[in-house]
Structure formats: structure tokens, C-alpha cells
Amino acid sequence: MDYEFLTTDTVAAYIASKPELSSIVDAGNIVDVQEVGDGNLNLVFIVNDAHAGTVVIKQALPFVRLVGPEWPMTPFRAEREAEALRIHGSFNQELVPKLYLYDSERFVIAMENLSGYRVWRGALIEGLRHDGVAELIGEYVAEVAFGTSVVGMPADEQKVLMAKSINTELCKITEDLVFTEPYDDIGRNSVLPANEVDAQALATDSVMIHAMGEAKWKFMTNAEALIHGDLHTGSVMVKALKGDEGPSLAMAFDSEFSFYGPVAFDIGALWANYTLAAARAVALGNVEFAEWVLALVGETWDSFVNRFSELYESRVDPRVWKEEMLEDRLAEWKSDAWLFAAAKMSRRIVGLAKAADIETLEPGLREGAARGVLELSRQLVRERNSDTSTSSFEALALEILTKHKTN
How far apart (Å, rounded) are the C-alpha atoms in residues 380 and 310? Predict the structure, then answer.
């Protein structure tokens, strides 16, 4: 697709051409432009003017940035992200960045610069504790799940929104990279030589493969709500209210994978990434921090349940959707969160687009951390239909990650 890509030299002129941004940043007095797009898909610029005005400019490329032009990718994903920002922000403005502009000709989003915030994954890698973030993100998932589902909005409106939110190409990435390629390598998988036996055990585990088939089916068919679709510690930003740690604010961003999918997918993705952070802490000998991180599993779930249950009181059709319906949905989502967590944590070890929590460990420590995550993922799918309590998840994770710690 033929359109001009922004650069640090052309962003100011672009902003000047958009009257919608004149009250946000002074295009004639821009003092700093940084390209910070370290993700897999997009160009991202942070722009600051001389008067403390600031904005983030994000442009979708027509290919996967991680790979290059040989992997084409629709830039219309930016439209999906802009719509998700608008809709998700309507439920909780405190947890979603403000959307200032969407440019459909150049696939550009202008949004709030979360000055003072940092990516949660980086903070966890440094061993920092941001209290309250898991609860806030649990509330975010609940508000989106309720507000965009048939229990929270009229069915006719929900069907229109669902039709507008089809996100074929980015869903295909998840379908391939998360649920399929770890078990059918097409040349994009990689692990340390010491972990090749672990990757092979994963790929030939018939129970795991069956479970991933079920997970993929649920991902592709359970159109429950307009989920984030890529919610992990790398798509949450945090800001401590005092110092580097302690009570904190949170924001969910990077929602370009948003689509109508299973509510449990976002929850499982969070659990998986907490586990990766815990695996790093165990590898480094910081068991206390690993326990703190794993406790986020329960904190996120409890917050989700509490908020969704509160919202359920105002469901649009209480005639047959009684309390038993709520109990059934929560039980199903909890079990499915185990399933999706297994899928998300294992693909970060063997597949494309790995997680810095594990990859930045030196190889000797990374070997054990990776082995522990892969064994845990295989065990999660085996136990998800028995005891699905979050305390069992946390205990199992700590046990297996500790068992495989390498020196």
C-alpha cells in the first residue's frame, strides 16, 4: 500500500497539518521527537514542544516491522486500535490513553503521552513492585467484558459493533504464532541448544496439542466481547504515586489486536506474563519477588470477578440470565484462563516474538527458566479441569519454576 511513512524529521510538519492537534502540542515549537517503536509492528514517536505539550504519534506500517516487507500486514489494524481505544476508554477513562486523532489516509493514531509512566514489563524485570496495578487491570478487563457483551449492551448494537471490529490479519497472527507454530514449526521457532529437548517435548505432547486445538477453537469462535487481544505486561504502563514502587496507576495500551473474542484470553495472557516475570525472579534467586509476582494472578482474577459481578446487577436482560448464569460464566472463564495462560507462556519461549523477562537472562539461567515455563504450560492444561483456583495456579508455578532453576 502506497503512503508516506513518518520520520523524526517529518513528524512536526505532519502535526502542523492537523488542526485537531493544535491544542495538544505546538507544532511550531517542537523541541524533541523520539522514535520509540520497539514493538513488532509500528512506528511510534514521542513529541514534546517548548510549552510542555506532548503527544504520541503511532503509524501502522504495511508489514510486520519485526520481520520486514517480506511479511505484509494490513495497516487498517490502526483503525481497529483507534476504535478499541475509543470504546474501551468510554468504560474507564482512567485506564485507557486518550485518543486525539485517527488519520485513515496515513494510518496514524495520535494519543495521550503517558508521561511519567513506564512499561510494566520493564519494571518487573528490574524487580520493582507496583501495588494495585493487577487490581486495576482486572477492573479494566471486567468493564470491557461486560460493556461490550450482550449482557451489558443491547444485542442489536452489539452485533453492529462486532461486525465493525473484525480484525482478520492480526487474529491470524495469534492463531498461528500462539496456538499452532509452537507445535508445527515453519521456521520461525528458536530456543537455546540446551532447551531443544524441552521444545521437542512440548511439540510432541499429544495432550498439549489437543488442548491448544481447543484453545484455538475458543479463540476463533467465542465472540464474547471486544477484548484487548494482546494484554500482557508489555501493553500495560504503570506509574508509582510516590517513588519507584508502591501504590500505582495503570494504563492499558497497544490494543491493535482487539477483536470480538473470549474474555478469558486477556486474563490468561496476563497470568502468562506474570509467570514469565516470576520465572526470571526464580532464575535470579529472588524467590520472594517471584511469590509477589505470582500473587498478581489471584489479585487480577479477584478484581475481575468483583467488578464484573457488580456490573452484572445492571445486565440488560435479567429474565433468564440469573445469578447461576454469572457463576457458570466465571467458572468457565477461570478454567479457560489456565488454558490460554499455557498457550501464551509457552509460545514466548519457543516461538517468534519472545519476552525480555527470559531473553535477557544469561544463557545458563535462561535454560532453567525456559524449561520451567514449558513444563508448567504442559501441566496447566492437564490440571485446568480439576482445581482451577488461582492459589493452585500460583503454587504449581512456583513449584515447577523452582525445580528447574539452573545455577
Answer: 29
At CA 252, angle to CA 251 and CA 258, rounded to 5? Answer: 160
Strands 30-35 and 42-49: antiparallel
Can you tell me the distance from the alpha carbon of 400 to that of 66, in angstroms, rounded to the nearest whole number?
Answer: 32
Provide the Cα torsion 116, 120, 126, 132; round to 10°.
90
CATH number of 11-111: 3.30.200.20
pLDDT in tens, 228-286: 999 999 999 999 999 899 999 999 999 999 999 999 999 999 999 999 999 999 999 99
Distance CA 295, CA 391 (A): 8
Domain with CATH 3.30.200.20 in the chain: 11-111
Q: Looking up cell 524529521, which residue turns up? A: 9
Question: 118-403 belongs to which homologous superfamily?
Answer: Aminoglycoside phosphotransferase (APH), C-terminal lobe (3.90.1200.10)
Q: What share of the chain is helix, strand, coil (3-state, %, to 5)?
A: 50, 15, 35
Give the number of other Cβ atoms within 10 Å of residue 393's Cβ: 26
Delimit the CATH 3.90.1200.10 region(s) of the chain. 118-403
DSSP sequence for 348-373 = HHHSSS--HHHHTS-HHHHHHHHHHH
Which residues of the chain have a pLDDT value below 70?
38-40
SS (H, E, C) 293-315: HHHHHHHHHHHHHHHHHHHHCCC
